[in-house]
Amino acid sequence: MSITNYLEKLDGTGKRHVLLIVTSKGSYPTQFSREEYANLEKAILDKPSSYIDLFETKVPEIMQFTAFRLFLKPIICDKERLSDRSITKVNRLKKDQIISFFVTKHFYNTVPGGKLTQDEAINEGLIIAEQFLEKYPVNIYDFATVKLGKDSNEANILIKLDFKNDSNEHYFDYVYIN
């Protein structure tokens, strides 16, 4: 299978950032949930109190957790309507879409630089995806994806933030597709 088949399973078309957010089943945050959101933020931000530049390059202006809350929280959280208690969920992934995410990420990390051929990158990406799904099984975790446009404010903030993935309850990653 070519990389195009995997790209078609991910959100959007053209140049974009695709985010993968993983939480325990039933604990995916809404924009009003404090505890679920705080747990996600705490699990994925590596240096929440350090500063990043926002408007001027190399001029630290805003703390990472503040930038994350202002720019990314509204996009990654499920939308909850208090008036009728309904929830509009961000896109949830099926197993084949999760596999596509990791194949695509590995492809873009290795093929453009000439480290691997397309087929080698796809085969290794499939192995990485299966290892990931062993650690985060689809019957225990919720997998969500969000698309950010190339050069959007949200994407520009995203690439400046420092992330970690050392939690067994949460996982956050992204790939830039060009």
What can you tell me about this protein's structure?
With 178 residues, this protein is an alpha+beta fold. Helix content is 39%, strand content 22%. It is built from 6 helices and 7 strands, in the order αβαββαββααβαβ. It has helices spanning 3-7, 34-44, 64-76, 95-110, 118-135, 153-158, and strands at residues 16-24, 51-53, 60-63, 79-81, 86-88, 141-149, 170-177. The strands form 3 sheets. The chain has a 3-stranded antiparallel β-sheet with strand order 6-1-7, sandwiched between helices. A hairpin with a 6-residue loop joins strand 2 (51-53) and strand 3 (60-63). Helix 4 (95-110) crosses helix 5.
First-last Cα distance: 19 Å
What is the H-and-E element order?
HEHEEHEEHHEHE
Radius of gyration: 17 Å
Q: What is the number of beta strands?
A: 7
Strand content: 15-25%
Binned, the helix content reads 25-40%
List keywords for this structure.
178 residues; alpha+beta; 3-stranded antiparallel sheet; two-stranded antiparallel ribbon; 6 helices; 7 strands
Topology overview:
Elements: H1 3-7, E1 16-24, H2 34-44, E2 51-53, E3 60-63, H3 64-76, E4 79-81, E5 86-88, H4 95-110, H5 118-135, E6 141-149, H6 153-158, E7 170-177
Antiparallel strand pairs: 1-6, 1-7, 2-3, 4-5
Helix pairs in contact: 4-5
Short description:
The protein is α+β, with helices and mostly antiparallel strands and 178 residues long.
